[in-house]
Amino acid sequence: MSRKGAHQHQQASQQIPSLVELDEVDLEENEAQVNVNLLPGLTGAVTRLMVGFREDDVETQFGQVHCTMKGVPKGSRPVIMTFHDIGLNYKSCFNPLFSHEDMQEIMRHFAVCHVDAPGQHEGASTLSTEYTYPSMDQLSETLPQVLKHFRFKSIIGLGSGAGAYVLAKFALNHPDKVEGLVLININARAESVIDSLTHKMTGWIQALPDHVLNHMFGKEEIQNNPDLIATYRNHITNDVNQSNLAQFFKSYQSRRGLEIERPVPRGNINARTLKCPALLVVGDSSPAVEAVVESNAKLNPTQTTLLKMADCGGLPQVSQPGKLTEAFKYFIQGMGYMSSASMTRLVRSRTASGSSIASCDSSRSRSHTNDNQPAREHTDVSMENVSNSTVDQTVVMSSRKTEDAC
């Protein structure tokens, strides 16, 4: 095993237990704080409800969507909404990230709504044979009903794989409802004819879990991280309803392209593209690298950030949750929120280091805003090659409109 593979193996192995841990609500995140020790007569369910935890099955025109709400929405501030990839649910996709200690500061500022696609949540029953599984476009149209159900005004979307596609589609059709997007392993294009034929041919000899694993992980990671792969194979096989998963998988493989186009100054300024800031994330050994880079090339460069994480595989939120949290916090601060939050390690390193790790166009720097007022201009930072040793010293950034003086 190579040194790089061994490091990934060790790092991934440390994350495996968090797949099954139940992430508890941090009581300090809620404005209406409750001292659980003073509530001995209440059941656990009532206590969890009082501190901002609820699970709802939201009825939509395309079926029932299971949602898990954590925290209490803060006034007009957006809610963080997650959407998972195929073969996963919100826990197995995002629990390692939201359980990370550095994420707790973000959760004190924002409520979180985890959305599970129809039939994909933990303990889901087999969908009726009369039920037609929604297309990816239709899945995106379940989200307006989720917002209406919880009375959300707007969201910051966090999606992985198929979930990234769903949230991006939602943002394209409802730009007034989305303030920002963090898209892990986004693929904006439709499945090619060659890919479709390949899936049909391999479908004769490969089981569904193998298809899903090949979607998530590259060959190098499958070879070098047997414990991680075994954990997800077991989860996909035993914890996810196979009939429901097959329908979700087929829906994703049948997706249409997002049909986005990069705006060109003095050209196609009205091109169809995301109107909100977007952070695109991919591991450097992920099978989604090419698709993410291509998606980035089609988005507005003044609104889009590409984060390519070095020594990282198909699930950055699992293998490197701390570094992804740092990038997420920096992204949110660039939107004008959390200005009173503690300085991130990334920014501290820029302040303390004598060497420059960023080039800044100070003439277009974003004006500062308070914590409750979103900025009208947004940070655009291209970050590549986040090393395995430390995020503080090896982030290479080219920056436009950054809020930090250079």
Description of the molecule:
The protein has 406 residues and is an alpha/beta fold. It has a single domain, classed as Rossmann fold (3-Layer(aba) Sandwich), CATH 3.40.50. 37% of the residues lie in helices and 16% in strands. The protein has helices at residues 3-15, 44-50, 90-98, 103-109, 136-140, 143-150, 162-173, 193-202, 208-216, 219-224, 226-238, 242-253, 289-297, 316-319, 321-334, 345-352, 391-394; strands at residues 53-60, 63-70, 79-83, 112-116, 155-160, 178-184, 278-283, 304-309, 358-359, 380-386, 396-400. Strands 1-2-4-3-5-6-7-8-10-11-9 form an eleven-stranded mixed β-sheet, sandwiched between helices. It is globular, with a radius of gyration of 21 Å. It starts with a helix and ends in a 6-residue tail after the last strand. Mean pLDDT is 78; it is low at 13-18, 20-42, 44-50 and 346-406.
Could you give a short description of this structure?
The protein has 406 residues and is of the alpha/beta class. It has a single domain (3-340), classed as Rossmann fold, CATH 3.40.50.1820. The chain has helices spanning 3-15, 44-50, 90-98, 103-109, 136-140, 143-150, 162-173, 193-202, 208-216, 219-224, 226-238, 242-253, 289-297, 316-319, 321-334, 345-352, 391-394; strands at 53-60, 63-70, 79-83, 112-116, 155-160, 178-184, 278-283, 304-309, 358-359, 380-386, 396-400.
